[in-house]
Structures are given as C-alpha cells and as structure tokens.
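User: Can you predict the 3D structure for this chain?
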Amino acid sequence: MSPKNLIYDSTTKLIFAHGEGSSLLIREPSDTNPYFPETTIAKLEIDTTCLHSPIVNIIFNSIITYTSNFSGTLNRLVYPFRLTFQLSKILNLGEKIPLKSWNYSIGNLSSTTFLSNSFNLTYCDKSFDEGLCDYTVEIIRVNGTLIAGNSLRIVEELNIQNSNIFATAFSKV
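Assistant: Here is the predicted structure, written as structure tokens:
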C-alpha cells in the first residue's frame, strides 16, 4: 500500500486507510451466459500490528446506475434485478474470510427505466486480528429481472461507479 493511502496517528493510536475501487458494467445474465463471475470492485490494505486487539470500521460507497428496456406484454414482477455485494478479509496473506453480504435490488415494471442511486455499506470488524489485512468488496451474484408475461424481452444494464473503501482501526483497550 502506498503511504498516501495509510495514516497512523500515534497520539490517538488510530490508523486510517483508503482504497479506490473500479468501475464495473454489468449486463443481465442471459441464456448463453447465466453466471456472473465474482468480481472485486474495491480493495484496501491495512496493517494493524501496532494496535492491541484492533477493531476495524469499514465504509464502502459507490454510485449505481441502472437502465432497463422491456418489450412485450408486462404482467407482474416475479423477481427483481438483484446484485449481492460481499465484504471479505484476508489476514496475513492467508485464506479469504467472508464477513458479510448485502443485496441491492431494483424492481420496476416501466417499459424504460433509468435510476441512479448511491450504495453504501458499513461494517465493524471486531475479530481483534492483528497483522496485515486486505479488505475487499466483491460482487458475488447477479440475478436479472423475471417478469410474468408473453414474449417478453428484457435488456438490463447496471453500472457501478466512483467506488471507494475506507477503514479506521483502533485498539480495543
């Protein structure tokens, strides 16, 4: 991690870290490509070896833009467009440990939709692990909209932009 993304305040014994994410364009799964591979959209590294029983607060934020076009007979929404985010940790270059997941859903029966929202998540890691930690936010699942109707064609696209991840670590005692 570059020094500009990590600040240690020896007076308060706080560590601040920042990691930038990437933009990601997601098109709905299709019959020819029903699976979406797990994709990392933000990552940061923080070294808590100078803290005793560290607690790490993680904040992730991004802008999500969703567009859809439906053609055909719209009847009723069976299942909305759903995206699952997962926060994970790797301690001292070991195995990835999933910490928590969040769902982002959009359900709309308009023939054309354009939405832009912020998406934020926070998590407090109280595992008291000392050492070098990599925290990642990944997209682990994408489900396209399912609508009951005859001869329906759905085109959906979701864009995740301006992703950032922040961490503040401090000693428990």
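The longest strand covers residues 153-171. The chain has a mean pLDDT of 83.
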